[in-house]
Amino acid sequence: MQGTHLPVLTILIGFPILGCLGLFFIRQSHHVRVFSLAISIVELLLAFPLFGFSLDTPAFQFVEQLPWAPDWGVYYHVGLDGISVLMVGLTLIIFPLCILSSWSYISRRVKEFHFCLLFLSSACVGVFSALDLVLFYLFWEAILIPMYLLVAVWGGPQRQYASLKFVLYTVAGSTLLLVAIIAFRVEGGTFSVPELMTRTFSHDFQCWTFLAMALAFAVKVPMVPFHTWLPAAHVEAPAAGSIILAAILLKMGTYGFLRFCLPLAPEASQSFAPMMIALSIASILYGGAVALGQTDIKKIIAYSSIGHMGFVTLGIFALNLRGSQGALFQMLNHGITTGALFMMVGAVYERSHSREVADNQGLGRYLPAFMGFWGLMAFSSFAFPGTNNFVGEFLILTAAFERNLWVGASTVPGALLASAYMLRLTQKMAWGAPASPREWHDLRMREWVSLLPLAFLVLYIGLAPALFFKVMNPTLTHLMTGLKTQEISVQVSPRARAAPLTEAVVKTQPQGRPGK
Amino acid sequence: MTVEFKAELVIPELYQLFLIAILFVQVLAQGSRMPRAVRWLPWMAGIGVAVSMLSLHSRGVLFTGSYEIDSLSQFFKMTISLGFAVSVLNAVRQPTLDQDKETEYFLFLALSSWGLMLLSSTVELISMILALEVASFSLFPLVPLRSEDRDAAEAGIKYIFSGAGATAIGLLGFSYILAGQHTSYLAELAQKPWAWSQAPMAVAGLTLFLCTIFFKLALFPFHFWAPDVYQGASNETAAYIATLPKVGAAAILIRFAALLTPGLEITTILAVLAAVSITYGNLAALIQKDIKRLLGYSAIAHAGYVVIGLVPGTAEGMAAAAFYIFVYVLMNFACFWVVCRLAADGGNLKLNDLNGLYESSPGLALVLAVGAVALVGLPPTAGFMGKLFLLTAAWEHGYNWLVVVAAVNVAISIYYYLNLVRHAYTQEAPDQTPSPVSHPFFSVFWGACLAALVILFGILPNLVFRLPFPLS
Hints:
The structure holds two protein chains of two kinds.
Chain A: H1 8-23, H2 29-46, E1 61-69, E2 74-80, H3 82-101, H4 110-129, H5 133-142, H6 144-154, H7 159-188, H8 193-197, H9 203-220, H10 229-236, H11 239-264, H12 266-292, H13 297-317, H14 321-352, H15 363-366, H16 368-381, H17 388-403, H18 405-431, H19 445-463, H20 466-486, H21 498-512
Antiparallel strand pairs in A: 1-2
Helix pairs in contact in A: 1-2, 1-4, 2-3, 2-4, 3-4, 3-11, 3-14, 3-19, 3-20, 4-5, 4-6, 4-11, 5-7, 6-7, 7-9, 7-10, 9-11, 9-12, 10-11, 10-13, 11-12, 11-13, 11-14, 12-13, 12-18, 13-14, 13-17, 13-18, 14-16, 14-17, 14-19, 14-20, 16-18, 17-18, 17-19
Chain B: H1 11-28, H2 37-54, E1 60-62, E2 67-69, H3 71-90, H4 102-121, H5 125-137, H6 150-181, H7 186-189, H8 200-217, H9 225-232, H10 235-256, H11 265-285, H12 291-310, H13 315-342, H14 357-360, H15 362-376, H16 382-395, H17 400-426, H18 441-459, H19 462-465
Antiparallel strand pairs in B: 1-2
Helix pairs in contact in B: 1-2, 1-4, 2-3, 3-4, 3-10, 3-13, 4-5, 4-10, 5-6, 6-8, 6-9, 8-10, 9-10, 9-12, 10-12, 10-13, 11-12, 11-17, 12-13, 12-16, 12-17, 13-15, 13-16, 13-18, 15-17, 15-18, 16-17, 16-18
């Protein structure tokens, strides 16, 4: 695919940075908002050539490779495959919505706020498209400081504590990632991910690098027991910060597992899969159980994120095709649904100035549109059939049962917990007494605009996931074949039967139309 | 071997000597109508940077093989003249310096830089010691020049005594090397065996000799002076001491790295010292409240990082170390630049004094943030590239544990560097502070230039990376 095509990815990475520079010349806050929104929408339009993504090949597409520090084998090397193209798409959709959702909330240091947002959007696209380990690490760490500032400057009362915790956890996790990157360079002779994927490393080497990388990614996901930074950061972050955190940053962890751990250390992935699965189940159950006990809406959603991301890692380390499909779906879905939920928490906070459930009750009568969206997103969050999360969670549950009956069985309570806390929350918000919102304005135009696309995606992915299967399948099939050839009979279950079942899901979903 | 002296090879040194001569005349002619040194010296120092950049490609050997002009030395001379120019610019408005001592101050500053320039070209032990002494002795009087400050006097005495002690140890070591290997030329020394079993006396001597350089570099266990001297010396002097002498020390160490091969006892000692230095410096910096002390401990940690590059004894390692020290000068200057601008009365800044910096001067806050982030080693700054090169070089030669130690230390160090950013950006200034000093355009501009360079070399490391070791 290395041709003379338009350098789409470079444009996508560079354009927001140019926008950042442009911000310096704007004085009025309102103009800053309009300008940033325009930048993020143009960015979305610039991504149009990505629709040329070929669905027939697992190879990387839109590849660009330029020498950067050739003495050290560092290249500027970007490209997309079936996994990353979805993540880049998610990133591009989320950012304009972030800007919209902080339109009236952010009134202090507006320019700097949008500087951080635009910089983040650039770095996020970079993370998902980098094919050079150093480039990946560069974008990965570049996210840290703007995200820190988002929480530390525009956050809630505990922002100092939360932001510092976020940085310390993330950096502590990712230092060993750098060591692993260097080790790959020395053992494999290159920083290039596609090339390293073709190498075979010794089992010991794989184990060490797997652990080093897994720590970084597990902190980012976050998996129990590295999760404590997440609720703190989510609760204190401004709405846009929470959205980015939930919708994009957490995905980087699971993306890392899919992109690096599985293909580069396949044997180690097999060996450590039981451990990762145990941690995932712990995350699912723990996240759900703790969410049930919260009184702060943001905390409920934050802990529910831990549970949902537990499903993703479970899917990844089920190490079968359906698991990885489910994981990828769940990554997308969680981004859409939880992003929307955080957006709405931000909207309701602007009205009530409180995130306690008790202060936001009885919205059903006074804010019907808001509650309608909330209901849809809440149902999607606990994987109601017909919504997007159902597809992902169903696949992951199937994969888990396929791997082991007990693994599957122990995730079921997690799914139940999710409906328990979301229903409880939704019920109180809709019909709880005393009703607080007599004076409040229902959704404004801006909020309609930012919620509608996500609502559309919730239903579209829920009802017609076929397109997404087509995008991800070549890459995931390739990934799983790679794993299988490396396999040293760690697993016994016959995975040959996986394919027809998957297709059944694909085909029946659109017509089946499980009612809502 | 060339005996004749070719002046065109040493133009940067001669230019610096020319500046020293003018300053000397001006000291003698005190009270005459010559313009103050601060009026003309920044311009002249700026020209010095251009001169040393133009002579980047001079090559040759002088003084019967003891003075080599090669890519490495020219790269370091460029770094030193750049650092000198920044130091002069930084010290133009020095609140704690009496105006009648101003010319002397710059004279000693110039002399010290000149010594460092010589140092970067010496390839023979005696000339090395001489150059080192020129550089050190001219620094000793600078420390107590902070007017009416007892801490400065204390720091001055500490600096002199520990410096003299280190030199004495180095000379002792030199005598052992000479006795053991019968030569003082590095090129010949490199041919000799350096294993303990083969040349115990020389190895002991080399270890002692290196101590002098560790002192300059503030590497553990010769680091004790650094925090005290930084704290006691005026902000501007500390900025100089924190940066340029380390460049000289790194130049010497890189010359010595030719003797070191992985597996030798002395290499292992270096690796251990690097690891201890990094860890100790970072841990001690965690609890500092005084910004200069904090930067002092951070300097100890960074000395360790530079040494990582020498441990593998390869061209990549040396190139990485050279690149890192260059970057270190820039990022450290960026931090000190902000410190010097903020301390309007020349006093020491505490972390709390940074509160609200973002409101009063967003430009300086950004410079500080870039400097701090670069010192941590986060992308996209040059600090990250430097660390990446160092760690890659060390891993390739079996010092994996050292790489892990260094990487884990990034996680320790981020706390205190982030503290700088945190105070500047997220803490509100206390109400009763006197209205912030207005920072003239140029004080922000030059700081921004430093920050821009730190980012530029992070994105395009190749601009300088090949200079010290072309085609290697």
